[in-house]
Amino acid sequence: MSNTTTKTTGLPGLRGAEHIGFTVPDLEQATHFFVDIIGCEQFYDIGPISDPNGDWMQQQLNVPNSTVIKKLRFFRCKNGSNFEVFEYQADDQNVQVPRNCDVGGHHIAFYVDDFDKALAHLQQHDITILGSPVIRDSGPSAGQTWVYFLSPWGMQFELVSYPDGKGYETTCTDRLWHPRFPEK
């Protein structure tokens, strides 16, 4: 037996993010956006879910007990996390989409092989593009092009591409996960 001990950190058995969950104001509108514009695949629905006489909603989901999940729907988006998209009904529901700078602010980035072609596709579907594409030519993200865009309900997304890799890869043997090479 060796005197060397192996120190483990983090969740035992962690493999990666299985899904990303978020709430939308209109599930059918979101389905059109994710399937017809982005190219995700719709899988299955659950709901409605409620517990008007109990505390399951508060205990399990940290929402008021009177809340109803009208429906939730799962999507697969190519080589990345699945999406669990909720449509809730709640008396005191905040309907403002958080900004990136707000606590809970977020965005989801979609990697594409041909940035210009994907950007033109979004523009052809009247998707709001924020600013203009940013091209990184130095630093750890050198080689990357990105731009933010908004869903029809105002949620922030990002279009990103770096077909020849990123700058940090020239000085590091480890790699961030990449949707073009999901097995690596």
Overall average residue pLDDT: 93
- Pairing-aware structural class of the strands and helices? alpha/beta
Shape: globular
In spatial order, strands of the major sheet run: 1-4-3-2
Question: Which percent band covers the strand fraction?
Answer: 25-35%
Please give the radius of gyration in angstroms. Answer: 20 Å
Helical region count?
Answer: 3
Quantity of strands, as a count:
8
Q: pLDDT below 50 for ≥5 consecutive residues: which ranges?
A: none
> What is the helical fraction, as a range of percent?
10-25%
What's the main sheet like? 4 strands, mixed
Alpha-carbon distance between the two ends? 33 Å
The SSE string, one letter per element, is EHEHEEEHEEE
Question: Mind explaining what this structure looks like?
Answer:
- The chain is α/β, with parallel strands linked by helices.
- It contains three helices and eight strands.
- It has helices at 27-38, 56-61, 115-124, and strands spanning 19-23, 41-46, 68-76, 82-89, 108-111, 128-135, 145-150, 156-161.
- The strands form two sheets. It has a four-stranded mixed beta sheet with strand order 1-4-3-2. A four-stranded mixed beta sheet has the order 5-8-7-6, covered by helices on one side.
- The longest helix has 12 residues, at 27-38.
- The two termini are 33 Å apart.
